[in-house]
Records
---
Amino acid sequence: QVHLMESGGGSVQAGGSLRLSCALSEYTYSILCMGWFRQTPTKEREGVAFIDDGGMTHYADSVAGRFTISIDNAKNTLYLQMDSLKPEDTAMYYCASPVKEAGLQPCAVIKSNSRRWGNWGQGTQVTVSS
């Protein structure tokens, strides 16, 4: 129902910056919340940042103050600006949207409910070296 495609990952040194992009297309229902997640081979998927329709943002404690989520509605593109990167930020990053049944729910309701997220991009790798 929704196609997502991430880009912008890469390898950087600690303290560097990257901007991830997520192109949204083929959507067939309204979406009030979009999110970025990350995952490593040894850790479960972690919600990193979320943005509500209207611009209200939510961040994991581990990235607050360093990452900024934004959206360009005209371009149907979600962004994640990552500054002051740390080695522990190394992960595969995914953008995601909720299932149709949760499309009208705000981030405050669905950001911590894994069953609400059903559309995922292919992921983009971020590697931060010391």
---
Amino acid sequence: QVQIVESGGGLVQPGGSLRLSCAASGNSFTINAMAWYRQAPGNQRERVAHQANGESPNYSDSVKGRFTISRDNAKNTVYLQMNSRKPEDTAGYYCNADVLLHGLGMYDYWGQGTQVTVSS
């Protein structure tokens, strides 16, 4: 089993920056891909950033040019640097990991989310 924990959410003003972290913990696993999703109340969850091993990151059009996803594979951690924050970025942000459990197979894990609010 793998646990996904997000951190770094909070309140920022429009135009401000915030960095989210997502750490995976457990035994005998390898992360093949990690992604960030967000979901505002009443809205569907959308993927905003994704990066698989050995591939370039990709972003949704709504965040492209403002958000940057990066990974520290040694720490099983993924980051989301969010610049030029807009009010519409307000949402719960969720980390998703595509994980290989050694000897078992591929599994998909979700964190519980961290709230980001963009407001003056």
